[in-house]
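FAQ
Q: What does a multi-component entry look like?
A: The components come first, one per line:
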Amino acid sequence: MQQQDVVLEVKNVSKGFLLSEALRTNLKEVLTGIFGSRQPDKTFHALQDISFELSKGEVLGIIGKNGAGKSTLLKILSGITLPDKGEINFYGRPVSILDVGAGFHPELSGVENILMVGQLYGINRKAMQAKVEEIVRISGIGKFAYEPVKNYSSGMYVRLAFSLVIGLDADIMIFDEVLGVGDADFQLTVMEHIKRMIERKRSIIIVTHNPRDIVNLCDKVVEIEGGKVKAAGGTEVLQAYLDATVDNHVSLKQIYNEASFDNPTQGSIIQRVSIAQNGEAEMYGDTPIDVSLSISNTVGPDLSFALRITDIRGNALLSTGTDIGSNGRLEIKQGEHTVLCTIPADLFSHGTYLLSVFVLKGGEQLLERHKSILQFSVGRNRNFPNTTLYNGSQTSLVVPFAWGYKNAP
Amino acid sequence: MASYLQEVWQSRVLALTFALRDLKIQYAQTFLGLLWSLVQPLTGLLIYTFFFQRLIHIEVDAPYPVFVFTGIMGWHGFSALVVQSGAVLMNNQQLIRKIHFPRLILPLSKMLAGLIEFGIYLALLLVLLLATGYGISWKIIFLPFVFIISSIVALSIGIWLSALTIRFRDFHHIVPYLIGFGIWFTPVFYPTTLIPQQYNWVYYLHPVANVIALYRWIFINGQVDVAQCAVSFVLAFIVFIAGLKYFIKNEKYIADYL
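Then the predicted structure of the entire assembly, as tokens:
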């Protein structure tokens, strides 16, 4: 990698915090605290020896569970606090968005907030005034631009705040969990804008505890655990992270392809779940999808299975089960079998979905629960070409129903 | 420190934006709006004049309302700026946690807000001077200097407080309490000539007393001790510079203590 391409170097950054016990000081310590040097003793080590680099045009995902040290790292990258050790060098103008709408004051109008927050991010008032019109246009809030933002709906508020972020247009954009705000429509807009930033060779850091959001975005991933870099590399780090997370046995490699889940638990009824489309390298909405359950029935004939499919945001879309088959109830025989469920064609729109599998006894008692064990993506429905309305992920299910005239002409 | 102050200077418009924001928020959704800022000085003027002229008969060598108002102006310029700049970091925690910008802008914005209030007080005082037939002296050209000195005196305490309050929240409780008493130890509604000789040293070092003396020198031809002013202002300036250094040194850790 060329040296001049690097826009951010983070070298051996460490930071500790004084615990509140150590903050309770007596007068003598107060005075030495004011006039002496900082001497942290009872310290919680939030970050230890963190290093990574970011190059121009790259998208870096920083992942980790809550409490891993992501927020502290972000605060250091944003200049809000200093590291105890190590150094950070930016080659370009960074902007950190720790919160969509940070700095907004409810009593000020949209335009006033844009002008003020822009200045907080270091853009002078004149330059901000030149951008206001464009920002208001992107946000689509129209005449509300001159209303106090306290009168905005939460949707308008988020749209304006994010439009401001786009307007800031820094060389290095640092986002904290911004993909988690707003409704699905707004998130799609956010994604589009982030993709446009990438096209313009902006460098981006996205911090998230929900790596599914950034699967298709990142070039590089750094996983933080307990204040240390646990893993760094490409999207395989994401895969490993998801594999290690309970209830999240999501196969990312096989997006747009078949996916499978092998149950690591011994003696369970569900042993393997796979999802595939017959004879296709990629799955499309116009072809039936087969869900195969390899099972070991040690319970008896009153065993049944249920499937639930949710979208990537967790919205439940549909449920089905062996008790409610379109060809009647399927009785599950004793022993080892593979049960097949065929999801009909012309149902899913282009998008990514999650499959959950439930095992029930007597239709009520829950024996096993495999929540979101498979992630699969479906391509557009090729039977409906030129119908972008139905293939733009506006709704997850796009179904051709019967249409006609009530009274034949 | 020099590069930091340069950064602050580059963000000077931001300080003005903050000051105007605070003004706007303060009077948002009120019917009288900015007129409310006249209420406080006018009630002060009426109450002090009633008690100290009508009831207690304090002797001053100028019309009492003018005399007391110059005192109110000096004391308010100091106390409001100390209280507000002292609390400004606490009151903007959300901002400080989320966005990086030179934090010194926040207390400095309170100085600009003080300038707006100063304008309102000054307008009232000028009306008062003309109404009492006292007239306006050429010495009014020194007014900007006195305002700057007064602000530095207030910020010498305010900047220390703002940085210290973050770590030791005690100051949040102590300051309004001390300010409430401070007016009695400041020649606002009485002249310094009433003070017995043995207490004079207190007033010698009291920067606000000297600021008020300067206001009275400008508007009602009061006496000013130049040496006394110089000593107390130089002391205040030293405290101010030390406060700036402490603030800048600790600025990067403010977010850690919020």
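Q: Is there any commentary attached?
A: Sometimes. For this entry: Chain A touches chain B at residues 17-18, 23, 30, 33-34, 38, 75, 78-82, 96, 98-99, 102-103, 105, 107-108, 112, 115-117, 119-122, 124-125, 148 (CB under 8 Å).
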